[in-house]
């Protein structure tokens, strides 16, 4: 009966946290601008959805290698499960809510699940108040809050990483052999979600060496290693054809063939960026109070608490180590989402430690002090969010002076095209018919998706120096000097010499987005 009560409490915590955070995220589902990667995943999900619909209708021709490959070819550099989720959940919602909102509603269901998983795990270890605090800590990380709204892969990737890690620990005393099979299937599914999940196994292996060394747990890890690759291939139809060649191509893409992404770091465009770039970015965009609390959370009083804290510390370090070794395959904070999730758990423990310390001698005050410590911890970040809203990808920590401090350090002011939404609104109101608008190279998918969703005018002709359209829209390649308007975001790594000259010249922008005195985007009218 006691165990039943525990499981009911876990289910209730998970359900209430999911419902609360889903409601919060859904309230802002269209507030944040569309980002660079979202259209690609939307297009892939639409293709997957059509494939599943034909299967449902009994059109078995879609299993023929050529037909199957045609449906699953697009965006095959990323595993399929998130896009399958979008296909099954978002596509039916499109007639009611529109394309962008529908995909984001499906995405925030996974974001809410991440919050619920963390809250339930923390509650199981430290109690209900700690579980609630962990949710507040995650929500108060501005970059995490922004990414939680996107129809992208980064928050689902963090979910895929943390679920097998936490569940393995909570099930560590169960000796049933079949749990190895269950965890093998689970890890295979998470690998088919995003590559981040690959690091769950080394996290658990290091934890096993440091904290357990039970033979049955080693056997469980071994079964995971055997079963997961089979599940990975089984749930990805792209790999059903020319399996070995495509699997090798995927592994090569992850390691040596990935397109290289330059970074703007301390006033320089670097390719590759320094090995410590990921560490510096994480420190720059994690709220200072939460950084400190996370450090304070690395302590324990019991063997059980030591085991849990050590697991989270390892889970925190692993994504950063991975970023050190793959500095050309990511940009800004996106692949650091697993770090933020694990660090939020440590910061929650830090809140507990501070609460215990300030309540010493007055245990009756402890519950009240949770709220005080939490409020003081998240207030600086919340105030920054208020000043930056809705451009939370421009958030930088108080440790470097916020966004103005980042500008002085000559870091990017924004990235990922999220500011384009406001530029589209300006152009809708002011651009003459059939205006030619230059956008940054490889950014055409964002305005084309707005046009597809009828959120910006269809007569405006968007063009650039490079890049195509995933939607098959007409691609106009022209330089900034041949445009009527030029849209410039302050992500400096993407600036061409022509844009540098334009910004440095005498031509004043007709529209500007600024936050805290720092420019995020400008629109220029070309004479």
Structural account:
The chain has 527 residues and is of the alpha/beta class. The chain folds into 2 domains: 2-241 and 265-343, no CATH class; 420-525, no CATH class. The chain is 59% helix and 6% strand. It contains 22 helices and 8 strands. Strands 5-4-3-6-8-7 form a 6-stranded mixed β-sheet. Helix 6 (99-126) runs antiparallel to helix 7, helix 10 packs across helix 12 and helix 15 packs across helix 17 (337-358). The mean pLDDT is 93.
The Rg value, from CA coordinates, equals: 24 Å
Basic shape: globular
Strand content: 5-15%
Question: What series of H and E elements makes up the topology?
Answer: HHHHHHHHHHHHHEEHHHHHHHEHEEEHEE
| Strand order, largest beta sheet | 5-4-3-6-8-7
Poorly predicted parts: none
Q: Helical amount among residues, as a percent range?
A: 55-70%
DSSP strand count: 8
Distance between the termini: 77 Å
In total, the number of domains comes to 2
Q: Sheet bearing the most strands, described?
A: 6 strands, mixed
With helices defined by DSSP (H or I, 4 residues minimum), what is the helix count?
22
- Structural class based on helices, strands and sheet pairing: alpha/beta
Average pLDDT reading: 93
């Amino acid at each position: 009966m006691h165990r039943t009560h525990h499981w009911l409490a876990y289910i209730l915590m998970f359900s209430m946290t999911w419902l609360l955070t889903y409601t919060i995220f859904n309230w802002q589902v269209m507030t944040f601008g569309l980002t660079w990667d979202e259209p690609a995943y939307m297009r892939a999900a639409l293709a997957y959805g059509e494939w599943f619909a034909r299967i449902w209708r009994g059109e078995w021709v879609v299993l023929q290698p050529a037909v199957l490959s045609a449906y699953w070819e697009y965006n095959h550099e990323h595993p399929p499960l998130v896009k399958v989720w979008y296909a099954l959940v978002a596509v039916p919602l499109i007639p009611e809510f529109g394309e962008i909102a529908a995909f984001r509603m499906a995405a925030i269901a996974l974001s809410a699940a991440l919050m619920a998983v963390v809250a339930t795990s923390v509650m199981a270890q430290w109690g209900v108040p700690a579980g609630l605090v962990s949710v507040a800590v995650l929500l108060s990380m501005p970059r995490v809050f922004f990414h939680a709204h996107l129809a992208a892969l980064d928050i689902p990737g963090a979910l895929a990483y943390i679920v097998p890690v936490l569940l393995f620990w909570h099930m560590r005393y169960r000796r049933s052999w079949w749990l190895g099979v269950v965890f093998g299937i689970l890890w295979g599914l998470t690998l088919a979600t995003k590559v981040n999940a690959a690091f769950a196994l080394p996290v658990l292996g290091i934890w096993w060496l440091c904290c357990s060394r039970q033979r049955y747990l080693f056997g469980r890890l071994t079964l995971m290693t055997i079963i997961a690759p089979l599940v990975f291939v089984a749930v990805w139809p792209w790999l059903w054809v020319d399996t070995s060649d495509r699997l090798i191509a995927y592994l090569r893409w992850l390691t040596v063939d990935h397109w290289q992404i330059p970074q703007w770091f301390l006033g320089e465009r670097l390719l590759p960026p320094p090995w410590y770039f990921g560490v510096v970015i994480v420190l720059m965009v994690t709220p200072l109070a939460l950084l400190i609390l996370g450090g304070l959370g690395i302590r324990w009083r019991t063997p059980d608490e030591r085991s849990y804290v050590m697991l989270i510390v390892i889970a925190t370090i692993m994504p950063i180590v991975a970023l050190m070794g793959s500095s050309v395959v990511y940009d800004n904070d996106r692949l650091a989402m697993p770090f933020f999730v694990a660090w939020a758990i440590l910061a929650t423990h830090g809140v507990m430690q501070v609460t215990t310390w300030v309540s010493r001698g007055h245990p009756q005050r402890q519950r009240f002090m949770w709220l005080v410590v939490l409020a003081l911890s998240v207030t600086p970040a919340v105030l920054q969010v208020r000043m930056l809203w809705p451009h939370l990808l421009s958030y930088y920590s108080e440790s470097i002076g916020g966004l103005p401090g980042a500008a002085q350090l000559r870091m990017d002011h924004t990235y990922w095209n999220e500011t384009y939404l406001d530029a589209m609104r300006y152009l809708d109101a002011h651009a003459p018919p059939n205006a030619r608008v230059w956008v940054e190279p490889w950014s055409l998918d964002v305005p084309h998706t707005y046009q597809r969703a009828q959120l910006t005018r269809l007569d405006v002709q968007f063009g650039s120096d490079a890049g195509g359209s995933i939607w098959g829209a007409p691609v106009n390649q022209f330089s900034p000097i041949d445009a009527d308007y030029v849209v410039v975001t302050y992500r400096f790594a993407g600036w061409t010499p022509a844009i540098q000259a334009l910004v440095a010249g005498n031509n004043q922008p007709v529209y500007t987005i600024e936050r805290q005195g720092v420019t995020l985007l400008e629109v220029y009218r070309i004479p």
